[in-house]
Amino acid sequence: MVETILIAAAALVALAFVLAMLRFLRGPHAVDRVIGFDVLTIISITGIVLVALVEGRAIYLDVALVYALLSFLGVIVAARYLEGGEE
Amino acid sequence: MARSVDSAKLFGLLLLFWLLLNGSVAPGTIGVGAVVAALIVVFFGGSLSFLSGHRLTPDALIATLFYLGYFLRELVRANLAMARIVLSPSLPIRPAIVKLRTRLTDPVARLLLANSITLTPGTLSVELKGEWLYVHWVSATTTDPEEATREIVSGFEKYLEVMYG
Amino acid sequence: MTGPFALIGALIVLAGAAFLFLGGLGLYRMPDSYTRIQAGTKATTLGTLLVLAGAAFLMPGWWIKLMLILLFLMFTNPLSSQVLARAAHRAGIRPAPETRADALADDQGDAS
After folding, report:
1. Do B142 and B159 share a structural domain?
2. Mutating which of A1, A4, A6, A57 best tests the C interface, going by the most C Cβ atoms within 10 A?
3. Tens-place pLDDT, residues B102-139
4. B103 and B155 housed in the same domain
5. Which of B129, B165, B143, B82 is nearest to C46 (CA)?
6. Separation between Cα atoms, residue A87 and residue B64, nearest integer Å
7. Fewer Cβ within 10 Å of end Cβ, chain B: N or C?
């Protein structure tokens, strides 16, 4: 029962990933792509946590934490760049 | 005086974070954590001051709890509202970028306010200029700054004022 | 992954996944950058919160690390959304035509 529910959850997360990926590919503006990327990384973090649950390995949680940290920095840097050095 | 209290708070916070990450309180872990936390406080204390601005009085801690409760309730409401919009075929939105004024002066309190606004029903902070906040509002009911302030900001402001007063 | 709370945990995870899906849908359907950020950031924050909370029910021993991830995301997720919204406005992206007012553009018009 629990396994089945988790698989359904994984399927929903995968669908969300596909939708965010479509936004990432479509743009139209670079900002829209970064927004898509931002959402993609958060969905991936949830995905990693789901994998950790299914595999029963806590080490993946450290991966998720570091991934969250790096993707946040990535988005901030991309946004600073898009602002175009104003101020 | 205030500076050394801030440093102690920052040190405690960093050490706590380290211990939680490790999930152990072995003497070696505490030792390494204490040394690293002390080094961070000495070298980067100035730029990390945003971590230690929170007041530690009982009032402030109670306000923090109320703030969290209010915040979680608003977050759920925000998501239900957003789900309704996203799932309806006609996409019923009436967006506007409105201007609000905040009474908060502490930079961290302002940042938390902006963060909270972003996660509450239909609103997204776009720009923060001094006491003025520019907020994108998906289903705007007004474009008047005073009214918008009352509707969006007031709920959070009263807790944040106590927490960072 | 057994125990009395496993089923509750799995259902919470499922609810979180549903919100993530809604976030993805909103991100795809919304007409301009600002509304996309709105849909994306809110749904993913609650979605992740629920998935991590559900995971804590399934694996009680992991709760500290799950809580750290959660705290970090709760703070950074809205922050990156705001920075992106600001970047969008500074990059000159105008809101969708149905937007009723843009106080920020008005004020900048006054200044320059």
Report:
1. yes
2. A6
3. 777 777 778 788 888 887 777 888 887 777 778 888 77
4. yes
5. B82
6. 35
7. N
Using CB atoms, which residue from B75, B114, B115 is nearest to C46? B75
Q: Which of A52-56, B144-148, C30-34 has the lowest mean pLDDT?
A: B144-148
Quote the Cα angle for B108-B109-B111, to 5°: 60
Instruction: Please give the residue range of the domain that contains residue B30.
Output: 2-51
d(CA A46, CA C13): 10
Cβ atoms < 10 Å from Cβ of B111? 18
E strand or H helix that includes residue C21: helix C6-29
Measured between alpha carbons, how far is B38 from B126 in angstroms, rounded to an integer? 36
d(CA A50, CA A55): 9
* Token pair for A32: 């829209």
Q: What is the DSSP string of B98-115?
A: EEEE----SHHHHHHHHH
C16 touches chain B (CB under 8 A): no
Contact B120, B81 (CB under 8 A): no
For A61, which of C18, C69, C86 is closest by C-beta distance? Answer: C69
Q: Give B3's pLDDT tier (boundaries 50, 70, 90).
A: low
Provide the β-strand partners of residue B163: none
What's the structural domain count of chain B?
Answer: 2
The model's pTM:
0.81
Q: Each residue of B58-107: pLDDT tens digit?
A: 777 787 888 888 888 888 888 888 888 888 887 777 777 887 777 777 77
Query: Measured between CB atoms, does C67 come within 8 Å of chain A?
Result: no
Tell me the helices (H) and strands (E) count for chain A, helix number first: 3, 0
What is the phi/psi pair of residue B77, to 5°? -60, -40
If we measure between CA atoms, which residue out of C10, C80, C96 comes closest to residue C45? C80
Residue count of chain C, please give it.
112
Q: Flag whether residue C94 sits within 8 Å of chain B, measured between CB atoms.
A: no
Per-domain residue ranges for chain A?
2-83
Same domain, B133 and B99: yes
Looking at residue A87, what is its pLDDT? Answer: 45
For residue A19, the chain C residue with the least C-alpha distance is: C24
Strands B96-101 and B123-129: unpaired
